[in-house]
Model the fold of this input.
Amino acid sequence: MSNRIQTYAEFWPFYLREHSSPWTRRIHVLGTTVAVVVAIHAVATGDLGRLWLPFVIGYGFAWPSHLLIEKNRPATFKYPAWSFVSDFKMAYLFWMRRLDPELAKAGVKPSDRKAA
Done:
């Protein structure tokens, strides 16, 4: 019996619980948003040699928040693809103001969701 998560449907609530602090979520969303803007700029200007930069920016924001705020190990190390997709999903839901219901379903307590 493996203790690895087998489906994305199982992973998503785990991902949200690993980001229970509103500050961790804010930092992740900021990093993801800046990374997307930098990627769009690189493509729009034809400077494709800089497409590595969004990865450095995105993870450069995200990983320290796990160490300093959540005190956990980023899910990226065990589930890289699902974690990558979830960063964008969380940012999208955050900006659309639809993240709170997902946090509630994942069992992130209301006190942990303040100013999400």
